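Teaching note: in complex prediction, the entire set of molecules is handled at once rather than each chain in isolation. The prompt given to students was simply: 'Predict the structure of this complex.' The entities are:
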Amino acid sequence: MTDTNSPETNLIQELIDKETIFTLIRQTAAWLDNEELELWLKTFSDDATYEITTSSPELGSDMSWWHSEQKDLKKIINEIPEHVRDKAKRLHLISPISAELNNNTGTVLTHFSIYRTEPDGRSSLYVIGKYFDEVIKTKDIWYYKSHKVILDTRILEPFTHLPL
Amino acid sequence: MDLDAFNQFPDLPETHVLDNRIYTDQEIFEQEQNKVFKHTWLFVCHESELPKAGSFRTTLAGGKPIIIVRGKDGLIRSFYNICRHRSSPVVRSDSGNAKEFQCFYHLWTYNLEGACTGVTKPDGYKAVNLDKNKLGLIPIRADVIAGLVFVCLSGETEPLAEYLGEIIKPIMEPLSSQKLEVFHFHRADVQTNWKLWQDNNSERYHSMLHVINRKTLPWVKGKTSPMKLRLSNNGHSGYWSDGDAEVDYAAGGYSTVSKGVLPGLKENEMRVINLFPDTMVNIRSNVIRIDRMVPLSVGVTRVEWWGLGLKAISETARSERLKHHNMFWGPTGRNLGEDVIAVEEQWAAMKSEVVRYSILAREENLNPTDDANLRAYYKEWGRRTRRAPHAPFGPAVRDPN
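The expected output is the structure of the full assembly:
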């Protein structure tokens, strides 16, 4: 008979949860790379937010370049095909750093880089940064409650219509 | 196929045609630095970026490194950011606050008014009677209108207010009747000639490039429009309405972002002014965008973008303003990225020299998609460079002044 509250069981559950969350983050990146944006959107809880931030040494403060509630993201991603936009393919490289869980919520830090490959085959580093995410488990599925992109890169060439 | 057959001068007035080499020729680019950027007032920052004595910003103006600093007396001054000793940069940060400036190399010091206050190991100069009082930072003219800080590298150019003339009036109340804050600044090195970015900012004919504009700018589509181009002195221009041209955010499904207008504006109103040679101020209801250009080479332009709004507003209003700004502008903005792609691909194609001439021939009684403001801009460009925009390698343009 298994003791569901034993330290061992709790540890195993925490490890399973952490691996599930890291899988969520890797999968999120893969969906962005493949522009499967409907699937990307399903990783958010109903009240979630998505944000891209960076800092400005000129202003001496942080800046927010994109801040959307989940309800607004659908309209934005639906209009992406209508934009004149960067034609390059993107590839995320993801490096999970830490996850701190507290029952059904948690905070997760991930390092990432995104490479661009242009239609003629040239590849280059596009941006680097961190994801700082707040996650929540609902009906055994982990979702983003806050998916925050903190960019080290401050000059985007080209600009982006896609989430990062 | 002989390209010359396709590159005959168009059957249009000379004023309605540009020779594309004004965008691609190295000699013209170098001449512009001397004849345009050294003799015009250039926007460099907003006064709120220099909130107290010692606050400074550094940037390039006319290709030269400069410091802009607020002195102990509250005045904003500007200097070349070059030490009088051995020409090292005195300030190596983009912004900050200083009690004095000290060159990092040999540690000479300057006060906020630019005077040289300290020479390291001064005894070594006694034999030659070096007078540090004659070795202050080289000053540059600086002035402020509507919170906008301008510099001018020439002592001969008219005062700023005279240089800007009437064009500044529609933005005076929104920009100067309450305190503003800069909440956004970023830059990018755009692979294009600097004038193509100014063209993009000036002409509304391209605005249907943008998904959001197609849904929200009904006054761009019609044959007549309450939104009118306004032409001013020195090649400055703008466009605004006298009350009836509103951006139709609701039609695009973007309601709420534009709430809380700046002083003197109506709800959902838009006003834009383009200052010769390199600055745009674009106001949409509750948010202001300012562009300036730093030409780095004939085909690379550093564009700097500011986002500003009222300082004393609620967090809710601040959040809506940010969404409004980022919806159009910024590196993840829906419109700005399209504009950058447009001017970069335009310049790359232009540089191939397959097509010699650009056509600026729209005449629509100053409706927003009229080219009259571009024609006025290039008339001024020709006056300053002494080159005819339609024939830049022909006879020099005479200055009517």
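Point out the following to students. The longest strand of chain B covers residues 180-190. Residues 189-385 of chain B form a domain with the Naphthalene 1,2-dioxygenase Alpha Subunit; Chain A, domain 1 fold (CATH 3.90.380.10).
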